[in-house]
Structures are given as C-alpha cells and as structure tokens.
Amino acid sequence: MRVTHMLIARRTQNYIQDAMQRLARTQEQMSTGRKVLRLSDDPPALSQLLNVRAAVERNQQYMRNITDGLSYLDGADTALGTTGELLQKAIEYAIQGANGTLEPDDMAAIGEQIDKMIDELVDIANTTVGGKYIFAGTKNDRPPFRRDGDNIFYQGNLERVSREIMDQANYAIDVPAVILDDGNPDTPGGVFGEAQVSGDEYELTGGIFQVLLALRNSLKAADASGVNDSIGALNDQLDHILRYRVQVGARTSHFESVRDQLQDQELRLTQVLSSLEDADVARVAVDLSRQQLAYQAALAAGARILETSLLDYLR
Amino acid sequence: MPGTFFGLEIARRGLLTHRTAMDITGHNVANASTPGYTRQEAVIAATDPYANPTLGGKLLPGQLGTGVEATMIRRIKNEYLDVQARDSISSREYWQVQEEIFGRIEAVFPEPVASGIASTLTRFFNTWHDLNNTPQDPGVKAAVAETGGELATMMREAYQQLNDISISILKIDSGGNVTGGQLKDQVDAVNEILRQIRELTESIKRVYAQGNQPNDLLDRRDLLLDRLAEYGPVSVTHLTDGGKPTGEINLTFFGVDVISADVTVSLEYSAGSPEEVKLQIGGKEVSLTDYPASLPKVGGLAGLEEVRSRISGYMYNLDELSQALASTIKQVLNHGHEPPQIDFFTGSLGDKSDPFAVNPEIMKDPTKIDGTNALYVARLATIGMDGTAGYKLGEDAGGNPVEVDLADLGSATFNEYFNALLADIGARSGSASDMAESRRTVAEQVESLRQSVSGVNLDEELSRLIQYQYGYQACARVLAAIDEMLDYLINRTG
Questions:
Q1: How far is B198 from B261, CA to CA, in rounded Å?
Q2: Gap between the Cα atoms of B155 and B148, Å rounded
Q3: How confident is the model at residue B483 (pLDDT cuts 50, 70, 90)?
Q4: B455 vs B427: CA distance, rounded Å
Q5: Label partner for A241 (CA 20 to 30 A): which of A127, A209, A224, B78?
Q6: Looking at the partner chain, which of B122, B422, B459 has a beta carbon nearest the beta carbon of A310?
Q7: What distance in Å separates the CA atoms of residue A44 and residue B420, rounded to the nearest whole number?
Q8: Exposure of B416 by Cβ count < 10 A (0-12 exposed, 13-18 middle, 19+ buried)?
Q9: Which residues of A touch B112 (CB under 8 A)?
Q10: A-chain residues within 8 Å CB-CB of B419?
Q11: Mean pLDDT of chain B
Q12: How many whole angstroms separate alpha carbon B187 and alpha carbon B168?
C-alpha cells in the first residue's frame, strides 16, 4: 500500500489521541478507586449496582428501626422488672401486715408505705426512653399516668407503637399500658390494668393500682383478712407482669436475630457493591504504566517519523 | 530531411513539457495537506513522429521523433473507493452524533458516583420510616418535607435538562414550526452543500465541453459529496457520453433525486403520536426513524432524530415516575381521612406554571403531614407497581385494610423503575460510543485506502521534481548544443 505524509500525520494524531484517552480513563480509575464512573462504563452491572445500593440503604434504615425498637423494648423490660420488685416488696409488707401480731397503728404505717409505692409505680409507668413515654401508646410526648387522690388516670392512647424491621414486617415494640374495660374480670388487662373513658382521658378501673389501693385500705383499716386477700391478688399481678416481661424478652431476641441477619446481609451486599464498582488498584496501576509506555512510544514514533523526509537529504 | 532549426523545436518542446510537469509537481506539493485533494500527474507522451516521404528524398532509417508534449493532466483517483468512503462516513456520523448527545444525557444524572435521584428516592422513603417511628415529631416531619422537596427538585432539574437537550436538537414554536436546533442547522447545511454542488457541476460541465480536465473542481465537488454523506445516505452516478465523462451526475439523498435546481430539503414536524420530525425533499416525505428497508439507517440527521425520540422517552419515564409517586402517596395519606388530606406532591414535571413539587403548604408548615399512615407510605418503596387496584398495604390500628391503587410501572418499584431508566441510558450511551468508535475506525481505514491512491507523497514528488529538473537541464543542454552549432554555421562560415 502506498503511504502518504498526510496519512502518517493523521494516524499519528489518532494514535496519540487513542493512547491519551486510555491513559485519562485509567488515571480516573486510579485516582477515584472506582471502575464505574459513568452510566455507560458498565451498563450490565449498572442496574444491579444501583439496586444493590438502594437495598443497602433500605437495610440501614431497617437496622435503625430495630435499634430504636430495641431501646424501647429495653426500657419496657427495665420498667417491668422494677414493677416486679415493687410487687415483691408489697407482698412482703402484706405478709408482715397479715401475720396478726401488729398493732393497728403499725399496720396503718405499713399502709402508708404502700401508698408511697403507688406514687413510685406511677413514676415507673411514666418511664421515658429518649424523651418518649414508653407506656403512652403513640401519644408519647407527655406523661401518661396521673394520680389524683385514690384515682389513677391514663392520658395516653390505646394505639400500639410498632417498627418495620424488614420489608412489610411490622412489629409492636411496646406492651399495652392499659386495655379498655370490657366488664369481664377474667380478660387480662394491660400492664397497668383496665380502664374506661373518662372525659378526654381514661380512668383505671382494675389492675395493679387497684390491688395496691385495696391493700393500702385494708392495712389502714387493720383488716387482716382483707390484707390476706390482697396477697393473692398481688401474686396474680406478679404473674401478670411476668407474662408481659416474657413477651418483651421474646420480641427483643426476635429483633436481635433480625438485626444479625441484616448485618450479615449488609456485609454481603457491600461486598457485591465493591466487586461491581471498585477498581482493582493493582491491575489499574499495571495498566497505567503500560499505557504510559504506549503513549510515550506513540509520541516518540510520531516525532521521529514526521521529521524525516527526502528534504533532509536534498540540502 | 527535416529543416535546419528542427532540433531547436524538439528542445523547446522538451523544456516546455518538463516545466509543465514541474508545475504539476509543485501543485501537488502545495496541496499536500489540502483536504479532498487528489494528486495530479502530467501524462507525457512523444509527439507524432516526423515522416515526410518526398520524391527523391533519401529514405530515413525510421521515423524521426519530434519531441514530447504533456497531453493531459490526469487525476489519480479510484471512484469506487468514494462510494465506500461515503457509506462509512454516513454510518460514522449516525453513531457519532448519538455518542455526543448521549454523553450530554449522561451528564444530567450524577449517578453512579455521586448521589442523585436514585439515592434521594431511597432516603425519601427512609424518612417516612423515621416518621413512623416518631409520628408526632415536628423535626422528622420537616425532614420528610425537605427530602421530598429535594427529590422533586432533582426530578424537575433532570426533566428540564433533558428538555434543554431535546430543544438543542430541535426547537419547535407553538405553531409546530421548526425554528432552530441542530437538526435544522444540519438541514440548512445540506441545502447549502446542494447549492454548491449544482454550481460546481455547471462549471465542470463547461470545462469538459471545452475538452479540458476540471481536476480541482472535481476535487471540490467530491469533497462536498463527502460532506453531504455526513448528513444522510448519498448515492452518486457519474454520467458519460460515449465513454467520456460529461461532468454531470445523478445524485440522490435519502433515495430522492436532489440534483435538479429546485429541490430543497426541509423539516416537517408532526405533533401526533408518536410525534416525529420528517424530511421533505423536493415534495417527497422521508421519515427519519422509520426508514424504507432499502436504505441503511445512517447519517447525522437520522442519528439526531433517533436520540431525540429517546430523550422524549426518558422524559416520559420521569413524568410517569413523578405521577406514580404523587398518586400513591396521596392515596395512602388519605386513608381514614374524610375529607381528604392535602396532597403531598403537587403539579407535574412538564408544567411550567405548576411544576412538580412538595405541596407549598407542607413546605411552609411540615406539621401538616399526617404521621399515622407513615408506615404505609414507607412500604410503597418496596412494592412492584403493576397497576393493581386496591392493593392491601396492611391494616390500620382499627383493623381496617389500608388499600391503594398502584400505579403501573411495569411491576417495578419506584427505585427499580428509575434504575432501569439509568441503565437504559448507560447501555445506549455505551453502545453508541462503541459503535461510533468502530465506525470511526472503518471510516479511517477507507480514508487510508483513498489516501493511498490519491494522497500526495512528498518524497515521491521530490524525486519527480529532481527527475524533471534534470530533464529540463538536459533539454537546455541540447538547445545550447544546437545553438553553438548554428552559431558556427551562421557566423563563422563563409
């Protein structure tokens, strides 16, 4: 094939341009550490890359929901534990008051202790986690329980607080504080018993507060058989609280196992992401020096061949 | 027996011919870098020999040569290569304009390196999860409104930029007339090229009629034909008369004859469905996207229209996505509310007076977002939108099903739908630049072949220059010898 000077000049230009383009691309990969920098860089991997990335971000949200839920559950567990201890103590006092050797004054003094316990229980029922009252349903921005003399009022609502911990999987993270009174004493109430609507709040009608109030009254009245009855009721309440505590524990371990699963998943998804978008630095470095060589060779060859012509020998 | 001064004439012819040849070489050297230049060569032949048999004249041993002349100036050219070159140019341009514009489309979306619509979409639904966690929190509500606003702004900007690119290809006024854009510029260029080709053809015909070779005019016309091929498929037939070229050509562009003086090319926009722009060539309508099977899909015009229709598709997809978001979120937020809540998203992407955005009332006062249904809004993120009516998202606190009429995004979730859009842009952009790269290589190869026939090689020209120079010097030497001889004869004899 006949070769002309214009052809050589054009080809030199093309070769240098090609070499430079490749070099620039590799340099980009080298300095960003990524191999997919534009939509067109790896079209087959792109869709997968974007979907995996969305999945990772969603997972992180689920994990955030779980962590948040766990703190709620921990708060409930602690509160229920303290309530249990309080009940134990009340039972001890009741047994003390029921043994029939105490003077009415002493019994009344114990009754006074029980009254203080009721205040303490109101405080426990108003436990907060991160500024949220955990026994208030979703109306959790103000204290739900209020004691007014011998009446206990509930100002929260009856809705449950829940967290989405996986796709389309939503679980309650609270225990119901109170349940609407259905008139049947056999149905189990909420943690703090049953309640009925009273104005724009609820008044507690049965449950732990009522048992403690009855005990206090019996003690104050020095009614030993009434105190005896209360011991049975207190034991029932202890079982009742324990049942809720078991529920909370089960939910906690459920959330923890889902969290482990999500963490595991995230690790794997991050690996997939890395394999899709991260550049193999060692390989890129080798490519870079190889392409640098090619670029220099193209320049050198162009410079050498373009300066030679018959003119050089006609002087 | 030739006359006394016969040798002088031979020397004169020799000098003249070598001068001509040197001039042609000079012309070649001067045009070594001229695009479209075809090297020329003097066709040198001996003149008719001297043969004058007279009565009693002594018969010569043979015919006596009378010298040399340059009979014509030849263009060294392979016209079959031109056909191949033009085909490869057309094909290259088709992909090259697409490569260029897809590069601009890609630049609209910051993915995959930076966070764009895709990750904001995920973040937006994550804020709804946060709102579900703390349904009354005004701070979280503000975050929902802000992220929604960010998402709407990003979608609006992407839509607007795609629209800008589309307008830079074809600008249409409200009356459906084409008023500007790259397509129109190309059509204007085509008309100008056609005008020049017609003018040159007239000049070429005149030169041929006088029996001369219009070499440089032919080069210019061939170059114009190459440029015409950049815009669309070209076919050229050179006409001859009794084996001799007349300089006339038959020229078709998109299969339509365009050599007649009154033929112009224009663009005809039809707003119908699908909206498209067609070429009007001398009263004939040529579709740019729906080609007749006999023509290959090539040239800048078809490439531009192809990518323009793609952009319309992407804009349509973005619009679908925004409407799907607006309608499903609205339905979910309205669950259990009578009268309905205010809309979360308002407007539409294409509407300048009512652009797609988070409801201004919500932006002003984010507490207007109702947190009770936040969970169901968050769940929308992972549901394949297949157009199901009354899809059950879950049950509310009262045990009533929360239902929503899903949008139809071909069973994709919002994220998947958008990612598919990005993947399509990436794939088409990638294949356009691959194709452009390979077509460029092919065009370059064919151009090399053409250059190898018609290009000027300076070394070659220089050696010829030396050759002709020696020839000239030798003729001058002959002249001097005869002059000396005649001087002796005239001045010294007698």
A1: 7
A2: 11
A3: very high
A4: 39
A5: A224
A6: B459
A7: 11
A8: buried
A9: 36-39, 46, 49-50, 53, 277
A10: 46-47, 50-51, 54
A11: 90
A12: 14
Which is higher by pLDDT, B114 or B465?
B465
Put simply, the chain B residues between 180 and 239 with a CB less than 8 A from any chain A CB are none
Pairs of CB atoms within 8 A across A/B: 155
Contact B132 A314 (CB under 8 A): no
How far is residue A293 CA from its own chain's centroid?
54
Of B420, B451, B458, the CB nearest to A309: B458
B69 min Cα distance to partner chain A (Å): 28
- Are B426 and A41 an interchain contact pair (Cβ–Cβ within 8 Å)? yes
A237 closest CA partner among A127, A117, A139, A150: A117
This prediction has a pTM of: 0.85
In the CATH hierarchy, which fold is given to the domain comprising A55-268? f41 fragment of flagellin, N-terminal domain (1.20.1330)
pLDDT band at B293 (very low <50, low <70, confident <90, very high): low
Give residue limits of the domains in chain A: 1-32+280-314, 55-268
Q: Quote the tokens at residue A18.
A: 């090609």
Position B399 scores a pLDDT of 79
3-state DSSP assignment of residue A208 = helix
Please choose, from the candidates A180, A182, A202, A200, the residue with its C-alpha nearest in 3D space to the C-alpha of residue A190: A180
Chain B residues closer than 8 Å to A37 by CB: 112-113
Beta strands in chain A (DSSP E): 128-129, 132-133, 145-148, 151-154, 162-166, 169-172, 179-180, 194-198, 201-206
- DSSP of B298-347: -SHHHHHHHHHHHHHHHHHHHHHHHHHHHHHHHHHHTTT-SSPPPPSEES
pLDDT in tens, chain A (315 residues): 888 888 888 888 989 999 999 999 999 999 999 888 888 888 888 888 888 998 999 999 999 999 999 999 999 999 999 999 999 999 999 998 888 788 888 888 999 999 999 999 999 999 999 888 999 888 888 899 999 988 999 998 888 888 889 888 888 888 999 888 887 777 778 889 889 988 888 998 888 999 999 999 999 988 888 888 899 999 999 999 999 999 999 999 999 999 999 999 999 999 999 998 899 999 999 999 999 999 999 999 888 887 777 778 876
A314 contacts B415? CB cut-off 8 A: no
Two tokens at B325? Answer: 């978001």
- Chain position carrying tokens 């371990």: A253
Residues on chain B touching A164 (C-beta within 8 angstroms):
129, 132, 375, 378-379
Q: What is the pLDDT of residues B135-168, one digit of tens each?
A: 888 899 999 999 999 999 999 999 999 999 999 9
In sequence order, the 6+-apart residues with CB closer than 8 A to the CB of B92 are B436, B439, B440, B442, B443
